[in-house]
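Example for tutorial group B:
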C-alpha cells in the first residue's frame, strides 16, 4: 500500500474518527528520536490523548496495517529506510496528583515533567529518574531504573517500586486495568517485551517528603549522571547500546578494547562512556549498525563475551 492508501484505510477503519488532516505522509522520524537518526514513516499520527492512541492502534489492526508506538524515541535506532505502515507518536500527557499522593498520568507524559511537578508538590518516588529521557509508557516498558540515592549509590531504584496499576490496550483489542503481577517487572524486562499490549495510562503511589530534600536529590542525580553520560543536546544518542553484563560491565569491556572514540562515519563510541554511541552530526543507522558489529567482534575476540544490544532496531535498514 502507498502512504496515501494507508491513510485512507485508517480513516475508513476508524469510522472517520481519525482526522485525515492529522495523518502525515512520508514523515521523517529522526527529529523524534534522541539519536536524531531514522528514515520516514509511511504515515505518522500524533496521539494527544490516551483515547486517540487506542483509536489509532485499533484502526490499524482493523485495516491490517503494521503499527508502531513511539514515545521520546530514547531507546531505539530507526532504520535509514524508515518504518512501513503507521507510526503513532504518543504525546498524551494529562496527569493529576491526588491529596493522598496518587499520581495518575497518561502514558505519553515525559518522566522529567512528572519529576518536576511531583517534587514541587512535595511528593517522593520519581526524583531518582531526573535526566533520563522517557515517557511513562517507555518507563513501564523497561522498568526504568537508576543507581540512587546519593552519595553511596549502592541500590538500583526501579519505577516498579511506586507503580500501582495501569490501563492497557491489550493485544486482544480490549482495554483493561492491570497490576504489577500482570506486568512481571524484571531488569529491563516486562510483559510488554513479550506481548503487544500498549499502556494508555498509569497510577503511581508517591510518599510525602520535604521539597528541599527532593531538590537536593535532583541536583545530585543530574550532576552524577552528567559526569558519566554525554549531553544529548550536543551528542545525540540512544543511551546504553548493550545490555548489562552482571559483574563485568559492557562499557568496561569495550573500553579495555581501546575503542573509546572509535567511529564509523559520524557514529562514534563516546569518549565519556564506552557503552554509549553518539551521533556527531550526520550519522546514519548503517553507521551505527557497523559500529555495533565492530564493538561486538572486538569484545568477543578479546574476552569471549557476546554483547547483546539493549536498544531496539526498528524499521527497515
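The residue assignment follows.
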Amino acid at each position: 500500500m502507498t502512504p496515501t492508501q494507508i491513510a485512507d484505510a485508517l480513516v475508513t477503519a476508524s469510522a472517520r474518527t481519525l482526522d485525515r488532516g492529522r495523518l502525515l505522509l512520508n514523515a521523517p522520524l529522526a527529529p523524534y528520536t534522541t539519536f536524531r537518526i531514522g528514515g520516514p514513516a509511511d504515515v505518522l499520527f500524533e496521539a494527544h490523548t490516551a483515547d486517540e492512541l487506542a483509536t489509532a492502534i485499533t484502526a490499524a489492526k482493523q485495516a491490517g496495517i503494521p503499527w508502531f508506538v513511539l514515545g521520546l524515541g530514547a531507546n531505539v535506532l530507526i532504520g535509514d529506510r524508515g518504518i512501513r505502515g503507521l507510526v503513532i507518536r504518543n504525546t498524551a500527557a494529562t496527569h493529576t496528583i491526588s491529596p493522598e499522593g496518587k499520581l495518575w498520568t497518561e502514558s505519553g507524559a515525559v518522566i522529567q515533567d512528572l519529576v518536576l511537578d511531583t517534587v514541587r508538590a512535595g511528593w517522593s518516588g520519581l526524583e531518582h529518574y531526573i535526566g533520563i529521557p522517557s515517557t511513562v509508557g517507555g518507563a513501564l516498558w523497561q522498568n526504568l531504573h537508576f543507581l540512587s540515592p546519593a552519595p553511596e549509590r549502592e541500590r538500583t531504584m526501579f519505577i516498579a517500586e511506586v507503580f500501582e496499576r495501569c490501563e492497557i490496550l491489550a493485544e486482544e483489542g480490549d482495554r483493561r486495568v492491570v497490576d504489577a503481577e500482570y506486568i512481571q517487572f524484571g531488569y529491563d524486562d516486562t510483559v510488554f517485551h513479550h506481548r503487544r499490549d500498549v499502556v494508555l495510562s498509569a497510577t503511581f503511589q508517591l510518599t510525602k517528603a520535604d521539597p528541599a530534600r527532593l531538590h537536593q536529590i535532583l541536583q545530585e542525580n543530574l550532576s552524577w549522571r552528567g559526569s558519566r553520560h554525554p549531553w544529548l543536546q550536543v551528542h545525540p544518542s540512544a543511551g546504553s547500546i548493550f545490555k548489562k553484563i552482571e559483574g563485568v560491565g559492557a562499557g568496561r569491556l569495550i573500553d579495555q578494547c581501546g575503542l573509546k572514540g572509535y567511529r564509523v562515519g559520524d557514529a562514534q563510541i563516546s569518549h565519556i562512556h564506552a557503552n554509549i554511541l553518539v551521533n556527531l552530526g550526520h550519522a546514519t543507522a548503517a553507521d551505527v549498525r557497523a559500529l555495533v558489529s565492530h564493538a561486538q567482534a572486538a569484545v568477543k575476540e578479546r574476552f569471549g563475551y557476546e554483547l547483546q544490544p539493549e536498544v531496539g532496531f526498528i524499521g527497515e535498514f
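The chain is about 30% helix and 25% strand. Compare this with the pattern of hydrophobic and polar residues in the output above.
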